[in-house]
Fold:
Amino acid sequence: MVQGSTSMQQIGKVYLVGAGPGDPGLFTLKGKTLLECADVVVYDALVSPPILAMINAHAERIDAGKRRGRHSMVQEDITHLLIEKAQTNAIVVRLKGGDPFVFGRGGEEMEELLQAGISVEVVPGITSGVAAPAYAGIPLTHRSYSSSVTFVTGHESVGKYRPTVNWHAIAQGSETIVIYMGIHNMPYIVAQLLQAGLTSATPIALVRWGTRPDQAELIGSLGTIVQQIEESGFEAPAIAVIGSVVKLHETLSVCRPVIVGMR
Ligand code: SAH
Structure:
């Protein structure tokens, strides 16, 4: 696989692989092939068990799981680990939930690896912001309801590297809004969107563990959703979809996708 390398002096490569949202049937063939021949796999908490089961038995498996409040490895350590592993192994897979370049820090990791002189290749995955609404019967665009969609993080880390989200511009400029990591911040987000001119009747859907057997949905409006979250104890990880397309859930969710190979 690695040209010109010998067992004494290997030149490794890191593959930033998107695992998709959970259903193993949505994982790419390229990603699966890499898991079958990887020397090392460093994976995140949101990667589903059936996809981890595709990792070959000889590979070193490293859980870099990072979930809110339970940081098992900090980002800097993960990058150092990838650099170290790529110096002694041919195929290092960095496996991330959804798509690595969509709120997955894949861009930052790739920059740092390249700076360290390591070859990197990205293998896209299906992002949860597309797949979770789809499995809940919500198309993000529709000729009668929406001709624009915005993907936004609801978990803003205010700092010099990232500007804060301009909720006013998003509310005014996009007919469908898809929010990642927004559940804990929903009271603030809803208040911002109402202030920006959206009405309290605007439909919203929350989809938790989208495309997995335990997928759960909460459907409401901007006026009701905060109370619904409190009353139902609805938790992350979930995608929020806001806009008229959510109305389609009622008719389109009658046909449920079959989740392939999920036990
Ligand atoms: N790179 C990932 C996103 C990572 S950010 C992607 O492309 O999907 C983590 C957030 O993604 C979670 O807080 C949640 O909002 C969302 N998420 C990831 N997997 C999900 C799933 N199966 N169902 C619903 N939301 C999910």
